[in-house]
């Protein structure tokens, strides 16, 4: 799907002064499988057009699924009427034009995804299935995404990019136990599909099931589990609006230690280790933003409204109008600096404790207190003396992320590329959490 610049500019002419378009064309090709058989393959296409009009201190928004002139005119009439019904508001200070004149980062789409060859996805499935024992049942999905993005304003701003992403999730089940591997990259040719069977076999190791342990212990979060922690913490704590309004646990603490000194965290939409994108929903260029250095809070992510907290220039983290996760700027491309410990060294330092390969989700219960709840899923083990000794029953954690972030005593040397529904990419290593903040119920 391509978005015509001519149609975009025509829509802006219809909408008039103060209009901004945030357009997303989505094209996804999927192959799903369960019980080691392909169950579905299909293609999805969608165009989403978000419209905002700001005039005389008033602001209204709407959405379309087309750029057809008649549909745009109809929406323009409704928005004009809505503006007339609003009281005049105070004019906001505009973001400096220098940000809009900055070049859009060049992020070339990957031909391996653009071509979207179904035979490749079938080959991936066969490689994983045939590399496992016949008694292992394989489920999951393979997905290719092509995203065409445009942000344009009646004042002259026009940014466009095409992003690509290939991902595979493989879930293996055997004798009532499960293990999973999830890989993603902007270039399908870069995914090491051939490694997945070995990783699943290793995770489905023949260990006994131990009785559930209770109380506090050290916990080793493997990268896919650390992903949920770091992403949710960043979402709840590191946005400029939450900081300014006192809703962040870090409010008023710039320059102070807020996590373990082993934590150095940045947001960088152009780092190839993640899933790059060049600009946000306002058309602001994504800027590399140091957030935490050696445990000290050194920065926040912002949009135009909160650019005053980031040197007068937005960092490129405005979210789309009507976004289901809220309207505040939040991190989009987190990268946690790797440590020096191997996976074996982290396990040895864990001693007797829990090893978590995946957190199914983390749900925020109280943002200011960083209180969350979530469950483990797939390949959760118990370790004794630095060795895995058994499968541990899945469990639910309820904890304060701030306490966990301060209890990090080990950071792995190898990072995984991950994502979340509310974050484009998260690049994280394994994290060893000291006994205390994570309590096994």
UniProtKB/TrEMBL annotation:
Record-linked SUPFAM superfamilies: Putative modulator of DNA gyrase, PmbA/TldD
Alphabetical keyword list: Hydrolase, Protease
Domain named Metalloprotease TldD/E C-terminal: residues: 215-434
Database matches in Pfam families: PmbA_TldD_3rd (PF19289)
Residues covered by region (Disordered): 90-113
Molecular function terms from GO: metallopeptidase activity
GO biological process: proteolysis
Domain of life: Bacteria
InterPro entries the UniProt entry points to: Metalloprtase-TldD/E_C, TldD/PmbA_N, TldD/PmbA_sf
Name this polypeptide is given: Putative Zn-dependent protease
Biological source species: Kribbella kalugense
